[in-house]
Amino acid sequence: MPEKVDCVVIGAGVVGLACARELAMAGREVIILEQADAIGTETSSRHSEVIHAGIYYEPGSLKAKFCVEGKLKMYAYLRERGIPFNQLGKLIVATSEEQISSLYQIQERAKKNGVNDLEILAHNEAIAREPELNCVAALWSPSTGVADSHSYMLALRGDAENCGGMIAFFSPVTGGEVSEKSIILNVGGESPMQLEASTVINAAGLHSQKLNHQLNNFPKDKIPPHHYCKGNYYSLSGCKAPFSSLIYPAPEQAGLGVHLTLDLAGQARFGPDVEWVDEIDYDVDPQRSDSFYEAVRKYWPDLPDNSLQPGYSGIRPKIQAPGEPATDYFIQGPKDHGFPGLINLHAIESPGMTSSLAIAAHVKQILN
């Protein structure tokens, strides 16, 4: 007989941990199932650690809503918990006259999303802020920052556990069944078991669609496609980047271009690029740095030769295929698929960390 439990969160990434915290603090009995040996081992630890402002996303979209709400919630949470962060701001740069109009378009879109603090800077104003920058104009975002993502996830986990939540590592969900009464989960690992839950949050990230396919009775036509979009990062070796804020080029279709971010120690990293892959593979090809030099030198012409070293990579869980328009977060509740208590979180990519507390509040609202 399956062991009956109240709420199961599948996946101990940043969004899964935020959901577990939200539900545990609301008095729910929460168990987190994680197939790896630690929290946040995939997408949640393989990104730029940027706290996004909510600039780029389609007005009215879940990404826009949750990023703007989540940014405010996250900054407040980081301050309250003493978690390291730096609200160092971001410059989005136009390196040609043709790109200046895109800065105004981004500013207008941001206003529609409720982000009203963006400022267009002329060439001399941008150079006064960042003397080594090459641009004809720039858009300044003062509310963008970076955070210690691991400390943030540890705090979320701690909150959940302090409210009675439990986490089980090495516990992959290998199958199960959904019905109108409950959700049965087959859990693997050294001590396989069955759980019967009234609520299940599928926050499995790159594996969320696979999980739906493993659940008997779940309608296959309700499962969105999945595509892996890899982003490679390179670190700077032998010199220090002469910038005090984040530098972003004009956006690309599948991402935000090869941008320069700074960690909390002031070390620069470059990325991500866009590499569509069929399988999860985190190896960084040193040869891809050729395109990085070309992209970065558009806004930092003095980037030294042979200074970029392979760093790390992450994979964005996409719903759209290469060449298709960007899609929104894909959050399914009982009204969408017909099974009480089951919420699927698909395509939770950037700005996932920034959005995490807002997504968690939304999940609780759906369940209520």
Describe the structure.
This protein is an alpha/beta fold and 368 residues long. The chain folds into 3 domains: 3-47 and 150-224 and 326-367, FAD/NAD(P)-binding domain (3-Layer(bba) Sandwich), CATH 3.50.50; 90-142, no CATH class; 227-241 and 255-318, D-Amino Acid Oxidase, subunit A, domain 2 (D-Amino Acid Oxidase, Chain A, domain 2), CATH 3.30.9.10. The protein is built from 9 helices and 21 strands. Strands 1, 2, 9, 10, 11, 12, 13, 20 and 21 form a 9-stranded mixed sheet that branches. Strand 1, helix 1 and strand 2 form a beta-alpha-beta unit. Helix 1 packs parallel to helix 5 (149-162) and helix 1 runs parallel beside helix 9. The protein starts with a strand and ends with a helix. The model has no long low-confidence stretch (mean pLDDT 95).
Main features:
FAD/NAD(P)-binding domain, 28% strand, alpha/beta, 368 residues, 3 domains
Which helices and strands appear, and what pairs or packs with what?
Blueprint: E1 3-10, H1 14-25, E2 30-33, E3 50-51, H2 62-81, E4 85-86, E5 90-94, H3 100-112, E6 119-122, H4 123-129, E7 137-141, E8 145-147, H5 149-162, E9 166-168, E10 173-178, E11 183-187, E12 193-202, H6 208-214, E13 215-216, E14 227-236, E15 246-249, E16 259-262, E17 268-271, E18 275-277, H7 289-296, E19 308-318, E20 330-332, H8 334-337, E21 342-346, H9 352-367
